[in-house]
Design brief:
Elements (H helix, E strand, L loop, with lengths): L1 H41 L13 H6 L5 H16 L10 H18 L10 H14 L7 H7 L1 H4 L4 H17 L5 H21 L15 H9 L6
Length: 230
C-alpha cells in the first residue's frame, strides 16, 4: 500500500508538472504571435529612440509591394482579430500594439483598394482609446507610439481627431531634440487629417472605395490634389 500510494503521488506530481508546461506553452503562443507582428513591422528595436530606416519604404512609400507577404503571413491572425478571438491580447502594451497594427495597418495591406481595408477601423479606434486610458501607450518606444495612435488619425470623427492631434503633439514634445523634426512632420500629417474631417466630416478620398457619392465641393477639393493620404 505504501508503494502504491507513493507511485500515485509521483503520478499526480508528474501530471501537475505536465499541465503547468502545457499552460505555459498556451500562454506563450499568443505572446509569440504578437511578437512576430512587431518584429515584422518594426524589426529590432533596442532603444526608445530607435527608428528603423529600412521599414520606411513599407510604411510610407511602397506599401503595396508588401501586400502579398503580409497577406501570406498574417491573414489567419487577421481573421481571428476581426472575429474578436484575440481580445486577450489587450493584456499588455506590446500585445495591444500588435493587435492595433493587425487591425489598422495590416487591413490596409491585405484588402488594399477595397472597403474591407477600413472595416476594422472602429475596432482599432476603440482599442487605442482603451489603451490610452490604461496608460499602455506611455510604455512603448516613440516609433511604436506613432503606430499605436495611427487608427485615431484615420477616424472620420472630429472629436477623435482632436484626440489624435493631442497625442501626436505630446509625442512630438516628448522626443529628444534629434527626433523633433521627424515627429513635427508626423504631427503635421495628423493635423492635415483633422483639417479634412473638420471641413467635410469624412475623407472624400475614400468615397469611391466606400461607394459614397461625393459632393461638388468634395470633388473640387480632390481635384486640388493637396490632401492625399492613400
Amino acid at each position: 500500500m505504501v508503494d502504491g500510494a507513493k507511485n500515485y503521488s509521483i503520478a499526480i506530481t508528474h501530471a501537475t508538472s505536465t499541465c503547468k508546461i502545457i499552460l505555459y506553452l498556451l500562454l506563450l503562443h499568443p505572446m509569440q504571435e504578437a511578437q512576430n507582428i512587431l518584429d515584422f513591422w518594426f524589426g529590432l528595436l533596442t532603444r526608445k529612440t530607435d527608428i528603423p530606416a529600412d521599414k520606411a519604404s513599407m510604411w510610407f512609400v511602397n506599401g503595396a509591394d508588401y501586400d502579398h507577404v503580409i497577406r501570406e503571413k498574417f491573414l489567419s491572425l487577421h481573421n481571428q482579430a476581426q472575429n474578436g478571438q484575440l481580445a486577450h491580447w489587450q493584456n499588455s502594451a506590446k500585445n495591444l500594439l500588435a493587435l492595433i497594427i493587425l487591425l489598422d495597418q495590416f487591413s490596409r495591406h491585405i484588402y488594399r483598394s477595397s472597403a474591407q481595408s477600413f472595416a476594422q477601423d472602429e475596432q482599432a479606434i476603440y482599442l487605442v482609446k482603451e489603451g490610452i486610458d490604461a496608460g499602455y501607450d506611455r510604455k512603448l518606444f516613440f516609433v511604436e507610439r506613432q503606430f499605436f495612435y495611427m487608427p485615431i488619425m484615420h477616424a472620420e470623427d472630429i472629436g477623435i481627431q482632436d484626440i489624435s492631434v493631442k497625442m501626436f503633439t505630446d509625442l512630438k514634445n516628448e522626443v529628444p531634440s534629434e527626433l523633433r523634426e521627424t515627429y513635427t512632420k508626423i504631427l503635421s500629417f495628423a493635423e492635415s487629417h483633422r483639417f479634412v474631417i473638420s471641413k467635410f466630416g469624412r475623407f472624400p478620398e475614400l468615397n469611391e472605395i466606400l461607394n459614397r457619392k461625393s459632393s461638388e465641393s468634395e470633388i473640387e477639393f480632390l481635384n486640388m490634389g493637396e490632401y492625399r493620404f492613400l
